[in-house]
């Protein structure tokens, strides 16, 4: 399945489930998963490019596994998308394309988790823990690499905001919320 087809499938399933999840109004701060084995822990370290065990344990405690760890890099953009209280169809499409282009959803756990996050906003604590973890990962990198990766993350957030502008060019009130989140991310990362 191509990235575009995966994105369309994710969008369909996310938006078909969105109404049910929104009616409940639930948020989550952590995911519940089993403690990773040593081999899974090493795989997660490889996936994230992290050797610091403190960072890896924190990410693991948030519920990430070696199959879902790559989703961590998409959370800044997801936080921007949720800034106005919902993920629009255009934002969801862009996020799904980004997820599919960065890595194929060959693992059902990663796909299901991504669908859940698009349909149901993760809690503020979860977002903060994720941003703190990304900051700590970036801090382990050489300055030049850190700057490039941070800029890539923020650029993707900006692209998401631009893509969510209405076709007629009129500003949306939520753009203010989204720009505020991007400014906060720029400082936090």
If you had to describe this structure to a student in words, what would you say it looks like?
This protein has 189 residues and is mainly alpha-helical. Helix content is 67%, strand content 0%. The protein is built from nine helices and no strands. It has helices at residues 3-24, 38-48, 53-61, 75-81, 89-102, 108-119, 124-139, 143-163, 174-188. The chain is globular. Residues 1-33 have low confidence and may be disordered.
List its salient traits:
disordered N terminus, 189 residues
User: Looking at the structure, what is the overall shape?
Assistant: globular
Which regions are unreliable across 5 or more consecutive residues at pLDDT < 50? 1-33
Order of helices and strands: HHHHHHHHH
Number of helices: 9
Topology of this protein?
Blueprint: H1 3-24, H2 38-48, H3 53-61, H4 75-81, H5 89-102, H6 108-119, H7 124-139, H8 143-163, H9 174-188
Helix pairs in contact: 1-5, 1-6, 4-8, 4-9, 8-9
Question: In a nutshell, what does this entry contain?
Answer:
The protein is mostly helical and 189 residues long. The protein contains 9 helices and no strands.
């Amino acid at each position: 399945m191509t990235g575009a087809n995966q994105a369309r499938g994710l969008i369909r399933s996310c938006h078909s489930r969105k109404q049910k999840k929104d009616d409940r109004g639930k948020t989550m701060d952590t995911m519940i998963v089993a403690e990773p084995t040593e081999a899974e822990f090493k795989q997660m370290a490889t996936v994230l490019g992290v050797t610091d065990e403190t960072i890896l344990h924190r990410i693991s405690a948030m519920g990430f596994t070696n199959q879902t760890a790559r989703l961590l890099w998409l959370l800044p953009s997801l936080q921007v998308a949720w800034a106005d209280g919902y993920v629009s169809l255009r934002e969801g499409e862009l996020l799904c394309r980004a997820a599919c282009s960065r890595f194929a959803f060959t693992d059902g756990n990663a796909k299901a988790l991504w669908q859940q996050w698009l349909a149901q906003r993760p809690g503020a604590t979860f977002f903060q823990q994720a941003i703190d973890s990304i900051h700590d990962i970036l801090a382990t990198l050489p300055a030049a690499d850190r700057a490039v990766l941070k800029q890539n993350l923020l650029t993707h957030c900006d692209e998401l905001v631009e893509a969510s502008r209405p076709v007629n060019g009129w500003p949306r009130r939520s753009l203010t919320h989204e720009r505020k989140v991007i400014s906060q991310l720029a400082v936090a990362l």
